[in-house]
Amino acid sequence: MSNLAIPGDVVAVTKAADDASAVTIRRLHPKESDLLLAHLMRLDGEARRLRFGNPVNDYFLGRYAALALGADALIMGLFVDGVLRGVAELRYLTGSRSEAEGAFSIERAFQGLGYGDRLFGRLIASARNRGVRRLFLTCLRENRRMQAIAAKHGADLSFVAGDVTAEIRRPYADAASIAEEWADESEAFVFAMIDWRRHGLEFLTRPLQRLAETLNPSSPAGR
Question: What pTM did the predictor assign?
Answer without folding.
Answer: 0.66
